[in-house]
Amino acid sequence: MGGALHNRSQMMQKTTMKLEAVVFDLDGVITDTAHYHFVAWRDIAKELGIVIDEAFNERLKGVSRLDSLRLILAHGGKADQFSDAELETIATRKNEHYVSLLSDLSPADILPGIADLLQSLRQGGIRVGLASVSKNAPQVLAALGLTECFDYCADAAKLTHSKPHPEIFLTACAGLGVAPENAIGIEDAQAGVASIKGAGMYAVGVGSQLEGVDWLVPCTSYLTLPALSAHWADRQQH
Ligand code: G6P
Ligand code: MG
User: Quick check: 157 and 166 in contact, CB under 8 A?
Assistant: First the structure.
C-alpha cells in the first residue's frame, strides 16, 4: 500500500506542471477592436453589395485580413469575381478604414481586469505573450500603453497560417522560451480556441458560445491571476 501511495505521489509530481506563461489574443480579449474590424468589413461589404451581420462576423474573428475578405465574398456569392490584385486593393481599403476607426484608441479602451492581470503576471514572474494575427497589433498595443507589458509578441507578418492553425500560439510559446503545456492561451474566437488546443495549451475562452475550452468566462473581469491559478491547479488533479 505504501508502494502504491509512493507511486501515486510520484505520478502527481510528474503531472504537476508549473504555469510559466500566459499568451493573449488581442482583438476581443485585451481591447474591443473586434467591433471596429466588424464595422470596417460591414462598410466594405456593403460597397460590394454584400450584407454581413454580427453573427457572420463571429466567423471572421482570428482570421487574417485576406482570408476574411475571401469569406465575405463567398458569403455574398462573389468568390470568383476578383483578381488577386483587386483582393489586395479591397483589403487595403478595409485596413485604412479600420485604422481610421482606431484613431481615438487609448488606455481607457483596455477591457476590464486586463491591466491588473498583466501587472500581476509580471509581479508573479509569469511570462506574457501576444498571439494576434493582426498586422496592426503593435500600434494597438502602443495606443493602449501596453507594449512594455509583453515579453514576446508573435509577428503576424511572418506567419504562414491563420488561426485555427496552432502556428501562432506555438510561435508565441517558442518566443517566450516556454513549453506549450506550461502555458495558458486566452481567446474570444472559436478559431483561436482551436489554435490554443492544437498547440497543446490550456484554453481560456471569453464569451458565451465557445466550444472546447478548459475554462469559459463571460467577460474579461473574471480574469484575475488567483482565478487563473486556481483553474490551472484544478486541472492538474484530473
Ligand atoms: C484579428 C481579428 C481579425 C482580423 C485579423 C487581422 O485576428 O480577430 O478580425 O481580420 O486580426 O487583422 P489586421 O489588423 O491585420 O487586418
Ligand atoms: Mg479575438
Answer: no
User: pTM of the prediction?
Assistant: 0.88
The 8-class DSSP code of residue 130 comes to: E
Round to whole Å and give the CA distance between 17 and 175: 19
Ligand number, closest to the Cα atom of 35: 1
Supply the pLDDT for residue 26.
Answer: 97
Q: What rounded mean pLDDT belongs to the chain?
A: 92
Cβ atoms of 201 and 154 within 8 Å: the answer is: no
Classify residue 23 by its DSSP letter.
E
The answer to whether the CB of 63 is under 6 A from ligand 1 is yes
**Beta strands 202-206; 21-24: pairing state:** unpaired
Average pLDDT over residues 162-180: 96
Mutation to probe ligand 1, out of 64, 158, 195 (largest number of atoms < 8 A from CB): 64
34 has a pLDDT exceeding 50: yes
